Structures are given as structure tokens and as C-alpha cells.
Amino acid sequence: MSTSEPLVPVSGSSVAPSTQVAAAGAWGLGGRVALLIAALVTTPFTIRLLGSSRYGLWALLLTSLTWAALANLGMGTASTKFGAEHYARGDDLGEVAVVWTALSLTAITTSCAAVVVAVEAPAILAHLLHVRGDLLGPGELALRIVCALFVVQAVAGTVNTPQVVRLRWRQYTIITTAAGLIAAIGTPVALVLLSGGVVTAASVGLGAAALGALGTLLLSVRVQPALRRPRVSKVVLRQLVGYGSALTVSSLAIAPLSTAERFFLADNHSTVVVAYYAVAATLATTLNVLPGQLVGPLLPALTRLEAQGRLGEHRDLYRKSLSGLFLVLTPAAILLAFLAHPFLSLWAGTEYGLHSTGPLLVLVGGVWVNCLAWVPYTYLLSSGHTKILAYVNVAEILPFIAAAWVLTAKFGAIGAALVVSAMSAVDAVVFFVVVRHVAQLPFSPLSERRTRSVAVPVALGCAAMLAATVGHGLAIRLGWAALLSGVYAAAVWRLVLTPTERGGLLSLAAEVVGPGPWSRRSGRAT
Predict the structure, then answer these.
(1) Greatest CA separation found in the chain?
(2) What is the DSSP letter of 516?
(3) Distance CA 381, CA 485 (A)
(4) Quick count: other Cβ atoms within 10 Å of Cβ 349?
(5) For residues 422 and 480, what is the distance between their CA atoms, to the nearest angstrom?
(6) What pLDDT was estimated at residue 11?
């Protein structure tokens, strides 16, 4: 019998799975927005306090965390997938074995990688990152602190499994957001108080990560008390490694797929063109925040439903996630394109408004398609088909590199945007086709009222194009964007959503913010 404290009953719930996932996603999105705002406010202070050279070094050290993440062998995702299966069956011992086995492997592999990097820090900084002069000494110590930071983050990403599989996103978001805010706000404060540099920034980051990991551990033990008794299994280890190794191969393949076009731009043109493209890519990929917060709770939810044989609810959750993402993501992409030129001109300068807008518009289309593909991608993760992901990414490397070389040479930043967007489209088609073939899950992102769910976004796009001819300043376009967003939301509510779907959204509001007028009306709406 289960001794854990589940958020919802394993075999059933008064709250629909789609509502639980949406509520978790809403909490995750709120936390992400809070961190983005904090970064937007504090980063200029950090830049000025560190100075351009030290901030550049700090940015390089943070970038190294992305590559170091490969050392955990995909254990964060693997522990979520297998932990959710055991939780769905009410198997506490199996869930604990998954968490402790994944945690042990993560600690070993990441610690080994961290030790190697820490020992070779002088060579890495001098020969790989080309750090010279007075920055070399502090850089070595800061890199070693960042190595410890990486291990702590990897451990936290595995020990959070009991919270994730139970969709405990409210508590989880509070802990992770608080840790992120401490790092974002604490860094410039510490730099002022201590007159510090990159070592101070790295120390604040490590301290915040340690607090977040401690909070995550305490909450995990609270929801799954059996974690107090460590349990490691060879059988589970083989499952985790088999699942995670394919993810690691996929991640290794993604590295050139996500960076090659920038190196080709520099080689075929100049670093100035790279800057134009990088600014466009940074703005376009903000759309990834939406599916990024959906995937976290969707993965354990799909895994649990499939493990319990609740295939009808599994299919319904997949369909609602896809159609809901389409209805939210599409207007976000349209309005981002609508605001692109005046925003870039004000934020980055008129030169970027002139040269980055075109690549941004192309990238927005690619990112939009890619974001929709996150739903079938998550299904492949939940069903254990990680080898398919690895095959797809590896197969794309040579065609992508060839196309990126040709298109960047001929069309510059626009060419880079074209090849990235084309690859995103290929990924999306492949993932949707594979999921359709393997599980007969829906291919179309449209809701039940298909014609209306196409017509309303198309009308928004036409209205945005018309408004773009009327006003060119950012303030005017922001006003138009607010108006169009309101009209779009009203049209979706009245014309696209069915009464049942409207009732589900009212239930979601009650789930996220508590009982209110919407919860009393939700019964009549259905």
C-alpha cells in the first residue's frame, strides 16, 4: 500500500488530467515570467558592475553549463518517465529505486565531469576560451565554482521526481523561482557590497542553486517519505541508461544543429551579421516559453495514464494539449511578428531594426512549427521511444550543415533563418507522422470546431497586417496588439471553444487561483 502523499489519487481524480496539466503549466509559466522580468531588470546592473570583459567571461562560463548538462546522461527525464510509471501503479519501492538509482548515476557522472573541468580549468580558459591577463586567475576559480553549480543543478533535476510525477507544480515553482530570483537579484547586490567580480557572481549562483536543491529535496521527501530509505537497483539502472543514452546521443547531435549556422555566418560574412541573426533568434525563441512550461507536467501525466491503461484519457490529454497550444501560440507568433520592427529598433537600435526584422519573421514561422512539435516529442519521451529522437537528429546533421553553408553564403542572416526554420518543419512532420503511426494519436492541432479554429487566427493575422500599415511606432503597435489580443480572446471563447471546453477553462481558473465566481459558473458552462 502506498505510503506517499499523492496530489491526486493514482487511479482516478475529480480533476481531469488536462486540467491538472494546464494548471501545472500555468504555474510554471508564471514562475518563468517572473524570472524573465527579474533578468530584464537586473542584467543591465550586472553588466555595468562587472564591465564588458568580465561580463563576457561570465556569459561564457554560464554557456558552459549547457554543454556540461550532457554529463547527466538524460537522468532528469529518465527518472520522471520511470518514476511516473511506478507512481501510477502505486509502487513506492519502485519509485524510490528509480529516484535513488538515477540520483546516484547523476552524482557520479556529473562529479567526474566537474572534476575533470576543474583540474583543466587553466587550459580551458587559456586555450579554449582565450582568456588572458588579469581575468585568468579569477576565471579559474569561477569556473571551478560553476562546476559545483552544475553538479547541484543536475542533482536537483533528478531529486525533484516525486514532485514532478505528482504534478506538484505550485510548490515546485515556488522553490525554483525563489532560487532563481535569489541568483538574479543577489548577483548585482553582492557585486556592490563586496566589490566583487566573476567569482562573486559564481558564488551567488552556487548558493542559490544549493538552496533550491535543498528545498526540492525536503519537498520530495515530504510527498514520498520512502525516499528516506535509499534503494538502488541494477535492473532500474539498465532501464535508465538505455533510455538516457539515446537522449544523450540526441543532445550531442543537437549541438551542431543549433550552432552551425552562426559559425558559417561568421566565416561567410562577418560577426556583425552574426549579431543581426543572434538578436533575431533570441527574440523569436521567446515563443519556446509556452511549450516549455507545458512539457514539464505533460510528460509525467502521459506516462501515468498510459501505465494505468487509461488510453481514452491519454488520447484526450494529448489532443487538448495540442489544440490548446495552437490557440495560444498562434496569436503570440502573429503579434511577435507585428511588433518586431519597432521593438528591435528601440531595444537594439535602428540598425538591428533594419537587418534583424527579416530573419526574425522567418524564424517566427519555424519556431511556431517547432513549438507545436513539442507535444508529439513529449509523447515519444513518455512512451520510451527516445531512440527515434536520436535517429532523427543524427540523420539531420549532414544535410543541415550542407544547407546552412550554402544558404548563409548566398543569403546571409535570412539564409540562416531559412535553414533553421526548414529543419524545424522537418522535425515537426517527422514527429507527428511517427506518433500517428505508433499510437494513432491526432495529427491536426485544430480543436473540435475546425473551421473556426483556423478562421479566427487567420482573421487576427489579416487584422495585424492592416494595423501595421496604420501605425509604425512601438507605442501605437502595442496599443493595437492589446486590442487585437482582447478581440481574439473573445472570439476564441465565443466561437471556437465548445461549452465543454469553456467549462474546462473555468475549472482550470479555480484550480490555479482557488474558488471564485468562475468555479460557480463552470457547472452551467458544461
Answers:
(1) 70
(2) S
(3) 33
(4) 12
(5) 31
(6) 40
Predicted confidence (pLDDT) per residue in 323-377, tens digit: 888 988 999 999 999 999 998 888 767 887 888 899 999 999 999 999 999 999 9
Residue 299 sits at the vertex; the CA angle it makes with 441 and 250, to the nearest 5 degrees, is 90
Q: Please name the residues in contact with 346: beta carbons below 8 A apart, sequence gap of 6 or more.
A: 353, 474
Burial label for 222, CB within 10 Å (0-12, 13-18, 19+), is middle
Which cell goes with 391? 535517429
C-alpha cell at 95: 519509485
Percent of the chain with pLDDT over 90: 37
The one-letter amino acid at 524: R
- Cβ-based neighbours of 161, under 8 Å, separated by 6 or more: 79, 80, 83, 95, 98, 99, 102, 220
| Under 8 Å between Cβ of 445 and 496 | no
CA distances from 160 to 83, 147, 166, 432, 472 (A): 11, 20, 10, 29, 47
Per residue in 455-480, pLDDT tens?
Answer: 999 999 999 999 988 877 888 999 99
Q: Which of 395, 383, 388, 371 is nearest to 433 (CA)?
A: 388
Is-contact 62 140, C-beta < 8 A? no
**Helix crossing, 136-159 with 17-68: angle to 10°?**
150
* C-alpha cell read off for 268: 561567410
At 175-229, the pLDDT tens digits run 999 999 999 999 999 999 988 888 999 999 999 999 999 999 999 999 999 999 9
Q: Comparing C-alpha atoms, which of 451, 433, 313 is closest to residue 377?
A: 433
* Closest alpha carbon to 72 in 84, 61, 80, 83: 80
Task: Give residue 52's identity as a one-letter amino acid code.
Answer: S
Cα–Cα dist 371/416, whole Å:
19
Buried b (16+ CB within 10 A) or exposed e, 389-420: bbbbbeebbeebbebbbebbeeebbbbbbbbb
> Quick one: which of 261, 246, 276 has its CA closest to 422?
261
